[in-house]
Amino acid sequence: MALAGQPxxxxxxxxxxxxxxxxxxxxxxxxxxxxxEGTFTFNGTTYRLVDLPGTxxxxxxxxxxxVAREFIVRERPDVVVALVDAAIxxxxxxxxxxxxxxxxxxxxxxxxxxxxxxxxxxxxxxxxQAALGVPVVAMVxxxxxxxxxxxxxxxxxxxxxxxxxxxxxxxxxxxxRVLEEIAGLIAGCAPAPYPLEWVALKLLEGDGEITRMVQxxxxxxxxxxxxxxxxxxxxxxxxxxGGRYEYIGRTIRAAVARPRAGQIGxxxxxxxxxxxxxxxxxxxxxxLGLIFWLTxxxxxxxQGLLDTYVVGTVxxxxxAALSGAPPWLAGLVVDGAIGxxxxxxxxxxxxxxxxxxxxxxxxxxxxxxxxYVMDGFMHLMGLHGKSxxxxxxxxxxxxxxxxxxxxIESRRARLLTILLAPxxxxxxxxxxxxxxxxxxxxxxxxLVSxxxxxxxLAVLALSxxxxxxxxxxxxxxxxxxxxxxxxxxxxxxxxxxxxQRSLAFVKKAGTLILAVxxxxxxLSVLPGGKVETSFLARLGRWLEPAGRWMGFDWRLVVALxxxxxxxxxxxxTLGVLFGTGAGAGLAATLAATYPAAxxxxxxxxxxxxxxxxxxxxxxxxETGGWRWTLFSLGFLLVVxxxxxxxxxxxxxLLGLS
Amino acid sequence: xxxxVCLRLSAFICVPGLGVKVGVGFMLSRLLxxxxxxxxxxxADLARALDTTPELVEVMLEDLARMGYxxxxxxxxxxxxxxxxxxxxxxxxxxxxxxxxxxRDSSLxxx
Lengths: 657, 111
Fold this sequence. Notes:
Chain A has about 650 residues and is of the alpha/beta class. Chain A folds into 3 domains: about 1-160, 3-Layer(aba) Sandwich (Rossmann fold); about 175-255, Helix Hairpins (Orthogonal Bundle); about 280-480 and about 490-655, no CATH class. Chain A is built from 28 helices and 10 strands. Chain A has helices spanning about 10-20, 65-75, 90-100, 115-120, 125-130, 145-160, 175-185, 195-205, 210-215, 220-230, 235-255, 265-275, 280-320, 325-365, 365-380, 390-395, 400-405, 410-420, 425-440, 445-470, 490-525, 535-550, 555-560, 570-580, 585-595, 595-610, 615-625, 625-655, and strands spanning about 1-5, 25, 35-40, 45-50, 80-85, 105-110, 120-125, 135-140, 255, 480. Chain A is elongated, with a radius of gyration of 34 Å. With about 110 residues, chain B is α+β, with helices and mostly antiparallel strands. Chain B has a domain at about 25-75 and about 95-105: Arc Repressor Mutant, subunit A (Orthogonal Bundle), CATH 1.10.10.10. Chain B is about 30% helix and about 20% strand. Chain B has helices spanning about 25-35, 45-50, 55-65, and strands at about 1-10, 10-15, 40, 70, 100. Chain B has a two-stranded antiparallel ribbon. In chain B, strand 1 (about 1-10) and strand 2 form a beta hairpin. The longest helix of chain B is centred in the middle third of the chain and has 14 residues, at about 55-65. Chain B starts with a strand and ends in a 10-residue tail after the last strand.
């Protein structure tokens, strides 16, 4: 008697219950798979019980599956007990479908019905029995319920006292003829204990082991004929697997009753709005606005407090403590280190809010709806190509966006998508914008950043349409999305997540930002000790002419450049260059130094600028060289510059100075 | 009323039929047919269209992916995430599983 079933379905429990201490563990010959064997007695007969390895199917893809099916075919057990998990019959029944194509009689042990009932899944064992045509025994092995009935069924079947009329799954009708043809061609060469039809089926499935066995058995030209038929039907695997799924689907429809209440029902009802093409989109826009609003109402005040009471105080203390020290040391510590790191420190409240809101939305299950709805919007605009989803990934981070373009087969389309990916504002960029917007726009910050994000999404949509019209010729790509069930966010998980991510940020960014700040500071005072004549100023001034079109001076240009390492470094640089002046925070200093139009231009440029070094590295990797990478950089420089200038002049004309 | 028979994954023949309910046919093949129509579909929608449970649709999707007809999208940062300080936020752009048709048939391959 053999015990088959998927991993973790309770085979060991049943095995131990039946054999007790009377068991022997070894290895299957020639394999590293463990073999457990034991004996037990029932109704006067002694049974030898073999525990087969846990498998979901009987393909040749793993040693476990090969071992299991070979045992059944070669050693011909009197009965095979198939243990299935009542809570996920969809998965467990595939093995049963395969087993029924083999010669050994099967008894199905419907295990874990207690778990199934808890989840509201009700299965009628008699109906299942009628559908499958084999004995079905309901069990809860963990509590030793139903095990006796199982053995009774096995015993009855072995003695021939129980009628046995299995209904095995059928191959899809249009392939029945092919199956017979193959069976005819390989007649006599199905290796001894293997049933002919089963071998033919496995050949159609493309089973490696069986193919090898049959090929070795027959002369070359005979195999060629078989191979030709197989090649002509290389999608036969779908017909074979399809037959089994049809079988499973019919069985489940008949025997399983699943109530729609509870979580599933709630999710469906909410999705009627959240995944709706119109309402869902409005909801998404609203959610994005909410994120910004939260950031500004909670984050910005915290930011101000941190700036004044923490950074300012520390800077003051440091300055006092170093009053006797050489000026370069004081400068290094106060302007360099504290200036840079301090600025990023005040960045933390915004970042933590971002982390928290994203974590909540993701945990609750909303993020998937956001992607689905945006995709729906793209379809409305006639964009059906594969570029959309990789670009959408860019909203989180540009790195997975570029890597995600691998799904696009056409090299031209892939390249174009990679070129457009950095235009998608990643969360780092949005966080920087969230930091700077209040400085220039005060209470209007929410509207400004919200507007910028929507603008970015519009640009994304437009470019997507362009790609689709020119490169995909309007062909509709297919995507399948699995939307998880909604559930109340687990505050403990979220708290932990936010804490971990914030800590990770502080650790990684902290060291890097400290280094960058010190370097920036050093470059800003060498060689002469005065900022105006430093290396940094020289570099900045050299590039300043481009920035002057938008009212930038060299300091903003430099801040933009340091964003190349990682976007948050822009803030650090601004902190270093504008110093932690007595009392005045960075935000206030910036607002006092530049007109709002320049501020807006800076935000726009920041949003469209060359991406961080990680993204550039990935672009180089995916485009296979420097040519397209450099082109991408040049392209983005031009686009961001043009957009910045355009916005600056528009804002000035509208009187926004 | 037409009955469309899928001969192979790349060819369809539509013949006039009388009163035959469209939608007869193996779920797995119909799943692939639905996907080849294009567009983005939710697992729940597919389950409804195939008159079965979402769980079975997921099992079939995974199997199709294993067979090479489908491919998973997204979720790839790999080693680059190690250096990124905002490692948690990149998941903001994607959630749940997304699959797309992997183009096996040469007739479907673009350019």
